[in-house]
């Protein structure tokens, strides 16, 4: 590929990654193979040191959950059928017998560059693919932001926790757009900071595990942020359909024991009527929830001013009270529906 890399220990502590086009990238913090495979589809990662012993043979790729060592050199190789593209010829010259055998071998799944996992070998046969009825054994894995990893917490969270999606998007694509709503534009880094602000602001008001935050709003940025920010605080999010009437919404708010109600300014009167129904039912035992009104530049500001006059907190002001670097910790997923 026109680049020469020594497999010996480098003077710098950063690792090196050789891309399929021959370019070299350095990485300092450890990264996982899964992140690289997402960035480079239909390619796999190998340890360059394994090339010295894999001459003329298949190269075993690193597993997706493997963390790359900053002190080593790795390469990204395309997935191709037939002979390994890294070794166009045999290491030992004059091996005609091996060459003839390889010419006689038909290209099939067994001639992949990568070693097939054991479970794939059972499922593929000469008759074609056969679906498996066995359940997939899921593994517990600690993922997400590296600055929050702790040894005592490893193995306690599921690797597919939804909150890690936002964490990774902000890490890999911080400047790409995440939300577009009229004149509002947010990047993934912006959305991540806003969600952490929301979680921090809720936590400072003792909203956490066991609490419920109801959201009465259409598809606006605040609704999207609530799906991440509320779970980051450990609370449960209860999204209420804006097409329901006041009595039905009152039942949902009362049944979920919502301690916080986030409502779009357009539907504040509906939320106010629903809370009044609960107040008339419970009378002196009714404890009003914290009202947060979501302003929208595309709506008439009169409804926003009315909500603020009733003691509601404006959503953006509420976010300003939160910490953008809030150290959130997701709750363990029970798997119950």
What would you say this structure looks like, in words?
The chain has ten helices and 13 strands. By secondary structure, it is an alpha/beta fold. It has a five-stranded parallel sheet, sandwiched between helices. It has a four-stranded mixed sheet with strand order 2-1-4-3, with helices on one face. Mean pLDDT is 76; it is low at 1-13, 87-95 and 105-158. It is elongated and about 80 Å long. The chain folds into two domains: 15-129, no CATH class; 164-320, Rossmann fold (3-Layer(aba) Sandwich). The longest helix is centred in the middle third of the chain and has 17 residues, at 188-204. It has helices at residues 33-39, 96-104, 118-123, 163-172, 188-204, 221-232, 246-255, 268-282, 301-309, 315-320, and strands spanning 15-18, 24-27, 43-47, 73-78, 124-125, 128-129, 177-181, 184-187, 212-216, 236-240, 260-264, 290-294, 313-314. This is AMP-dependent synthetase/ligase domain-containing protein. Keywords: Ligase. It comes from Ananas comosus var. bracteatus. Belongs to the ATP-dependent AMP-binding enzyme family. One of its GO terms (molecular function) is ligase activity.
């Amino acid at each position: 590929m026109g680049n020469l890399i020594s497999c010996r220990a480098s003077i710098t502590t950063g690792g090196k990654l050789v891309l399929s086009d021959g370019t070299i990238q350095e990485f300092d913090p450890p990264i996982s193979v899964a992140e690289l495979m997402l960035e480079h589809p239909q390619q796999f990662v190998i340890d360059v040191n394994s090339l010295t012993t894999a001459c003329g043979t298949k190269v075993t790729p690193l597993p997706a959950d493997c963390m790359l060592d900053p002190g080593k050199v790795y390469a990204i190789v395309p997935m191709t059928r037939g002979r390994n593209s890294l070794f166009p010829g045999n290491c030992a010259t004059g091996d005609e017998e091996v060459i003839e055998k390889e010419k006689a071998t038909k290209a099939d799944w067994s001639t992949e560059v990568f070693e097939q996992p054991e479970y794939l070998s059972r499922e593929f046969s000469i008759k074609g693919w056969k679906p498996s009825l066995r359940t997939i054994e899921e593994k517990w894995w600690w993922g997400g932001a590296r600055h929050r990893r702790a040894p005592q917490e490893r193995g306690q969270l599921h690797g597919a926790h939804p909150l890690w999606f936002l964490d990774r998007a902000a890490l890999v694509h911080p400047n790409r757009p995440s939300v577009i709503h009229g004149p509002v534009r947010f990047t993934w880094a912006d959305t991540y900071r806003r969600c952490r602000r929301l979680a921090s602001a809720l936590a400072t008001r003792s909203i956490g595990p066991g609490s419920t935050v109801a959201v009465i709003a259409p598809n606006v940025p605040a609704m999207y942020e609530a799906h991440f920010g509320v779970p980051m605080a450990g609370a449960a999010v209860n999204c209420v359909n804006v097409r329901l009437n006041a009595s039905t919404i009152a039942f949902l708010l009362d049944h979920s024991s919502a301690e916080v109600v986030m409502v779009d300014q357009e539907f504040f009167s509906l939320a106010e009527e629903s809370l009044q129904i609960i107040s008339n039912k419970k009378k002196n035992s009714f404890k009003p929830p914290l009202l947060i009104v979501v302003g929208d530049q595309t709506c008439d500001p009169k409804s926003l001013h009315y909500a603020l006059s009733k003691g509601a907190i404006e959503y953006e002001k509420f976010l300003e009270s939160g910490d953008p670097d809030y150290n959130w910790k997701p709750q363990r997923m029970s798997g119950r529906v």
